[in-house]
Amino acid sequence: MTDVDQSRIRTALEVDRTIDIITIGARTGLPRTTEIWFFNVSGRIIICGTPAAKGGSGPRARRDWLANLVAHPEFMFCLKETVQIQLSARASVMRDPGQRRELMLRPEMKWFRNQVDSVEVLVRDSPIVEVRFTGDFAWLSRILRPIHS
């Protein structure tokens, strides 16, 4: 990979929002593609959702993408806006309430706070995973700051 490619990937991780993730189905074992948003929070790559799958308040909704990542944490993180490339990655579910609260209070997560009645709803019910890049893209995780080990 050239320095130009690395620069374009780093830029995409700073400015893009919409990606596809290719996970392995928790029950089927088959590849599943999901379009989703990601957030770069001070160099930490986060995939997150609201408690209700369609945004806004409401009961916590099951997320197939999250079940897939829990069962099979290795996945493909597919940039598709400013650059098109599939990055091998590993998901880690963020479970610690303190870390979840700290994340949800960050300016980058304002959209989520505007969807619910309180930050505590997000802390308790939002699906949140941290992304670490692997394989040929492990260099990205060395330059990005992880939330937890």
CATH architecture tag:
Roll
Order of helical and strand elements:
HEEEHEEHHHEH
Low-confidence stretches: none
Number of helices: 6
Would you mind describing this structure in some detail?
The longest helix has 13 residues, at 3-15. This protein has a six-stranded antiparallel barrel with strand order 1-2-3-6-5-4. With 149 residues, the protein is α+β, with helices and mostly antiparallel strands. A hairpin with a 2-residue loop joins strand 2 and strand 3 (44-48). The chain contains six helices and six strands; from the N terminus they run αβββαββαααβα. Helix 3 (97-104) packs across helix 5 (119-125). It has one domain: Electron Transport, Fmn-binding Protein, Chain A (Pnp Oxidase, Chain A, Roll), CATH 2.30.110.10.
Layout of helices and strands, plus pairs?
Blueprint: H1 3-15, E1 18-24, E2 31-41, E3 44-48, H2 64-71, E4 74-80, E5 84-93, H3 97-104, H4 110-113, H5 119-125, E6 128-133, H6 138-143
Antiparallel strand pairs: 1-2, 1-4, 2-3, 3-6, 4-5, 5-6
Helix pairs in contact: 3-5
Short description:
The protein has 149 residues and is of the alpha+beta class. The chain has six helices and six strands, in the order H-E-E-E-H-E-E-H-H-H-E-H.
What are the defining features of this structure?
149 residues; Pnp Oxidase, Chain A; six-stranded antiparallel β-barrel; 6 helices
